[in-house]
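Supplementary Methods, section 5.1.

A reviewer requested that the exact input to the structure prediction be made available. We therefore reproduce it here, unchanged from the version used in the analyses.
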Amino acid sequence: NRLGHYSKPEKIQGAVKLDSNENFALEQDFVADVAVKAARQVDLREYPLDQLDELYSRLARYAGVSARCLAAGSGSDQIIELLLSTLRSRRATVFAPTFSYFINRCELHGIKVDQVPLERDFTLDKKAFVKSARKSDLVYICSPNNPTGNQLERQQAIDIIDSLKDRIVLVDEAYVDFADYSLSADAAKRDNVIVLRTLSKAFGLAGARVGYMVTSEKFARTFRSTIQSPYPISTLSLAIASGVLARADHVRQIIKAVRSERSRVFARIAKIDGIKKFRSDANFLFIEAGGNYLAISKALSNHGIVVKLLGNLTGHRGCMRITIGTREMNDKFLRCIEGVL
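The structure derived from this sequence is encoded token-by-token as follows.
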């Protein structure tokens, strides 16, 4: 089978779950309270008619763009699927490593993918990337990048976009709420840029399946009216999403706490010999364990701690991606690896 395989994480009862970049710092009681209130407010016997407009209004306020530049879907992965089905691209350029799901879906749609390797420190050779992108009709930029965690410098990202005005540039910002900048406002002003965002990460709604894109008014209108299905998101998920967005100030405080925890965990890892760590702009850290990979993996498994085991990636040996969870979860992870090395 020539197609790549994107494996979903397995549910392990009682595990310390640091593998899927969910936001466990956002209190379960907070999300449950919003969900219960939402369930009481909606009539699930009816199709969702006005709830989507309310979501667009709240998303526009949060993202700082016009509601006319938005289109929602059942998770950003569903939007990716629809875009690949509709754009009919023949060739895509990505940097490597990056979000493997996108590459796998391109392969499924018969789209050839050119992968431009990132430098050892995960910076990008802009000239090499643009050169490859000019041979493609679709360009994918993950910002912050998954699994490495870093964003391109903002001006570098803008320069790439502006040098590819005759190409569709898809910017995946699933983790942007934890980063320093978003290209949402830039996408709204350009005809060739689509920014993907989600409520699965920072907003703690991975189970609700709500994603959205920011793009030009013209393409957003086309996507909403002719590409997307009439009711892509359930009434309950729409109401929950709007409810959480209505309390965005609390979510912002949690994001601030996650960023602080990210710095703390990074500093602790920096003191451990035998692990190479990399700066992150997301709610996870990428580490290179090298020859300690198997020992760390075994210790984590024995302690019921689940992280994303990546193996060898583009010149890096023994790689792992670790979600920034609650302080308690993070401390369990840190004590475990400190006990190994």
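The chain has twelve helices and twelve strands. These observations are discussed further in the main text.
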